[in-house]
Specification:
It is a single chain. By secondary structure, the protein is α+β, with helices and mostly antiparallel strands. It contains five helices and eight strands.
Length: 197
């Protein structure tokens, strides 16, 4: 399904991938289902960004594995990835920096939790790290030996989160799950009642 206004198509197949148009990358991004979670007592499918979103792709001027290229939009060498270089396959760029912790799925991945019956997004963590790229430069290396080049330098990382409130979750459970229980009772009870009559 494709998201519109915070909702994917209802009655999601557990094996189906979801797609979103990401305005940061100006392209469609695939989300795959990682596992199920419960938020406010509601069973949800947890989806995350597919690693292919950050693969080398000449169409989007992505020349570094694990990074999205915003250079053409911003006219400056800016590359984005997930925080702490999550999904960056090579240790090359992270190893050039000190003070980074190892990337962790729950802390660094973009996560989208979707209720499969309605397709509603009930929880989301959109995470992003913005990096400035300092290209290899013989002049800098020669005259300023302390300056590292060919470096992805993190400038900012952040997380935009949202989650259903407890009161909205209670309303959702009573309306959606309550209706499902009534329908199930009719499906099971109807034939039994018909057989008695």
């Amino acid at each position: 399904g494709i998201v519109t206004n915070g909702q994917f198509s209802p009655f999601l197949d557990e094996d189906a991938d979801l797609f979103v148009f990401d305005t940061t990358f100006a392209k469609q991004v695939r989300l795959f289902r990682a596992y199920n979670v419960r938020v406010e007592g509601i069973l949800l499918g947890r989806y995350t960004v597919s690693p292919e979103a950050f693969e080398i792709d000449p169409l989007y001027y992505q020349s570094f594995q694990g990074f999205g290229n915003l250079t053409s939009f911003l006219a400056t060498p800016v590359f984005v990835c997930q925080p702490h270089f999550y999904l960056v396959d090579s240790p090359y760029y992270p190893s050039k920096l000190r003070g980074l912790r190892a990337p962790q799925f729950l802390a660094d991945a973009t996560l989208v939790d979707v209720e499969p019956t309605t397709g509603y997004v009930m929880h989301a963590d959109q995470r992003l790290q913005i990096n400035g790229y300092i290209p290899a430069n013989k002049w800098l290396s020669r005259y300023h030996g302390a300056v590292q080049t060919d470096l992805m330098l993190p400038i900012f990382w952040g997380c935009k989160s949202s989650q259903i409130t407890p009161s909205l979750a209670a309303t959702f459970k009573s309306q959606v799950y309550g209706t499902q229980r009534v329908l199930l009772a009719l499906v099971i009870g109807g034939p039994v009642l018909g057989g008695v009559l």
